[in-house]
């Protein structure tokens, strides 16, 4: 994603944040309480990712304007992810007969493919200028690959962003003292996102299949070996960070920053590294601090919830999370 695409998206990021805050206002009760923040965050993430990839708003943040097509797409994206996990990690019975999970997976895939294809066909170069979609359409690949790339980008973006945003809100709710600084300083909000990625990265561990024989820390590994990089474990080690289990955004600011960066250069890598680095990195680094700052400007966030994690390809919050968004005066 080029810096130009990102610059074009900055105003949209603020518009999305504003709509998100209005949406929270509608959804919370009179005490600011929201029973299940996950369901709301996923709508923000679908809206945001589709805005970036397709240059199109689907209306998820205005409860009365969302179309049936958009609702079904959201449902298909959710179910697709869940069924993919069950098919991949469950007993591989689907290899012998079409299990229920397998059938739902195929149904969701077809629905997502057809819907995105329809959206792509609706677009003209003028309306999509500056979007990721426009860059993909200009790429030197065939039409089916272009459609697959658009779907990959949407699917890869939504769940990673959803988990990251829930983790970020959770940490900021648990460490309310940081909220004053977030309101005053976007750099502080950025430091919060880095610290949240250090403590709770969603896409971990990183995986590689070796193309050639290699020796790593005296272990001789043959070509074809799968190597998993558990950098998230090193991110919680005292050897690398002081008070490693505490949320301390200040470690990414001022004098402390140099020390944290030298310890963390290859440890805090939520988007991976090298040739396969996440193409959504710049986009996420742009939107997360904006979403955080705008939300905290509008609401005091708190929660009694105790986070539990589960693995579903990504590291995700287990179950729904309740949170309070008390309107600031
Ligand atoms: C907080 C949000 C996100 C996180 C934490 C994240 C993380 C990652 C990670 C760790 C990888 C693997 C990199 C590697 O192996 O070195 C990856 C790959 C990828 N990501 Fe993201 N991602 C996020 C958001 C997005 C978004 C918004 C998009 C698209 C708009 C996206 C599209 C992709 C794609 C297409 C790949 C595969 C790249 C390849 O294999 O060459 N991601 N992401």
Automatic annotation (TrEMBL):
Annotated keywords: Heme, Iron, Metal-binding, Monooxygenase, Oxidoreductase
Superkingdom in the source lineage: Eukaryota
Cofactor: heme
InterPro entries per the UniProt record, alphabetical: CYP11_CYP27_families (IPR050479), Cyt_P450 (IPR001128), Cyt_P450_CS (IPR017972), Cyt_P450_E_grp-I (IPR002401), Cyt_P450_sf (IPR036396)
Signal peptide from the UniProt entry: none
A Pfam family matched in the record: p450
Keyword Iron attached: yes
Oxidoreductase recorded as keyword: yes
Residues involved in heme binding: 278
GO molecular function, one term: metal ion binding
Family assignment from sequence similarity: Belongs to the cytochrome P450 family.
Descriptive protein name: Cytochrome P450
């Amino acid at each position: 994603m080029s810096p130009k695409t990102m610059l074009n998206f900055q105003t949209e990021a603020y518009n999305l944040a504003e709509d998100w805050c209005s949406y929270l206002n509608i959804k919370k009760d009179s005490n600011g309480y929201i029973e299940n923040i996950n369901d709301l965050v996923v709508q923000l993430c679908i809206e945001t990712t589709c805005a970036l990839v397709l240059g199109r708003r689907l209306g998820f943040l205005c409860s009365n304007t969302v179309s049936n097509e958009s609702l079904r797409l959201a449902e298909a994206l959710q179910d697709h992810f869940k069924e993919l996990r069950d098919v991949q990690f469950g007993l591989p019975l689907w290899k012998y007969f079409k299990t229920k999970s397998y059938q739902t997976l195929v149904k969701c895939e077809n629905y997502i493919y057809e819907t995105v294809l329809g959206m792509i066909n609706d677009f003209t170069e003028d309306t999509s200028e500056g979007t990721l979609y426009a860059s993909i359409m200009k790429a030197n690949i065939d039409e089916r690959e272009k459609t697959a790339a658009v779907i990959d980008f949407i699917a890869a973006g939504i769940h990673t962003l959803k988990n990251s945003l829930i983790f970020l809100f959770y940490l900021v709710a648990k460490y309310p003292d940081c909220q004053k600084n977030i309101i005053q300083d976007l750099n502080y909000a950025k430091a919060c996102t880095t610290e949240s990625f250090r403590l709770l990265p969603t896409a971990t561990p990183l995986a590689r299949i070796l193309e050639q024989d290699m020796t790593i820390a005296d272990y001789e590994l043959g070509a074809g070996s799968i190597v998993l990089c558990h950098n998230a474990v090193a991110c919680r080690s005292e050897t690398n960070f002081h008070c490693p289990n505490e949320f301390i955004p200040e470690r990414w600011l001022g004098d402390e920053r140099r020390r944290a960066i030298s310890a963390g250069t290859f440890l805090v890598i939520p988007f991976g590294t090298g040739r396969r680095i996440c193409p959504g990195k710049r986009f996420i680094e742009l939107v997360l601090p904006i979403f955080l700052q705008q939300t905290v400007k509008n609401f005091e966030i708190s929660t009694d919830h105790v986070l539990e994690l589960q693995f579903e390809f990504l590291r995700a919050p287990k179950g729904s999370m309740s949170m309070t968004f008390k309107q600031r005066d």
